[in-house]
Amino acid sequence: MAHQWRGLIAEYPDRLPFGEGDPVVTLREGGTPLVHAPALDARTGATVYVKVEGANPTGSFKDRGMTTAVSRVLQTGVKVVACASTGNTSASAAAYAVAAGLQSAVVLPAGKIAAGKLAQAIVHGATLVAVDGNFDDCLRIVRELTETHPVALVNSVNPYRLQGQKTAAFEIVDQLGDAPDIHVLPVGNAGNITAYWMGYSEYAGRTTLASLDETATRLPAASTKLPEMWGVQAWGAAPLVLGEPVDEPETVATAIRIGNPASWKYAEAARDDSHGWIDRVTDERILAAQAVLAAEVGVFVEPASAASVAGLIQAAEAGRVPQGATIVCTVTGNGLKDTATALGGREVDIDPIAPTVEAAVAALAL
Ligand code: F0G
Q: What is the pLDDT, as a whole number, of residue 349?
């Protein structure tokens, strides 16, 4: 009989802070494709895979953290979940709230959310609040209001979020047979780089700054090494590269348009403990990498996701990629969430032909 992936909490029961009988809210997230990308091998001299997180139920890696965070909320009796978001967290929170029978409230920077993500929050019935400010303002507001009201915060400052997100590292090790030499990923609020480092570390039998004590692994190691963590920020939203918050972050990659990441210290620890780095790439490079992934690999990702690949290509051009290394780039979200940016100014109105094979043959110049 065909086997269906059961979702993170069922697939990694020993490594997540849930016990038998605890409520589980899942949309069968995780188990995403790890795709070899020869077009990136050719550009880097390494063996490059992309971890396609856009294949999750709501189209981004956020579902990994949402199954754990929302499952935990059911243990507390709170009836409303809330988050600040650049779009994907809100889409995921809204969907998992539906699955859990909870309400969701999402606080978003006005005018800066890709259309697909906004549509998701709406169809899943979230209560939307648009703030005349950026993501950092939204997060400050949500943190304060969840402290004083019976509402559960499901941003990645909630440690259960990172617990779920760390499982992507487990999957990569399970799929490759060991950890890669280098892991590259986009960095916005810096939760995901923190979570991956936690996952790789726990699989290698270690803990990190962000590990929850109760789940710090006491299991046998599943990998023999740890990757270097390479983080990539957008040029106009690169606080971790500049070493100070950015007051007015700006980038075409709206998902990572963040000036003051919540997991700042954890991200620096991941960078330093892994002997990696965090760099920044221009919007032009992000869009070029998005086009390479779409036209040469066959994977359509949103702009923020392409930042990882843009950072890798930039590093290769600077001679910083060890030849022959095994490298995984996380591509965090689905390209369908933001088709307007991907198409740019390109014409999408095509003149119709007569409904005949002959006309089709002529139009295709066959
Ligand atoms: N890629 C995508 C597609 C994202 O949506 C995000 C974050 C990131 C990368 C960066 O991950 O914040 O863990 O460093 N999106 C958040 C949101 C902020 O609200 O959806 P991070």
A: 85
Q: Is the CB of 134 under 6 A from ligand 1?
A: no
CB atoms within 10 A of CB 20: 5
Supply the pLDDT for residue 346. Answer: 86
Ligand 1 atom with least separation from CA of 91: 20
* Token code pair at residue 234: 């957008």
Whether the Cβ atoms of residue 64 and residue 333 lie closer than 8 Å to each other: no
- DSSP assignment of 15-52: GSS--TT-----S------EEE-HHHHHHHSSEEEEEE
Question: What local confidence, expressed as pLDDT, does residue 217 receive?
Answer: 60
Q: What's the length of the chain? A: 366
Which residue has a Cα nearest atom 11 of ligand 1?
Answer: 188
Which positions of the chain have pLDDT values less than 70?
213-217
- Ligand 1 centroid vs 20 CA: distance in angstroms? 31
Query: What is the structure's pLDDT at 211?
Result: 87
Query: Could you tell me the strand order of the sheet in which 47-52 lies?
Result: 34-36, 47-52, 326-331, 182-186, 228-234, 277-281
Q: Are 186 and 285 in contact (CB under 8 A)?
A: no
Rounded Cα distance between 126 and 80, Å, is 10
CA angle 241, 85, 315 (to 5 degrees): 30
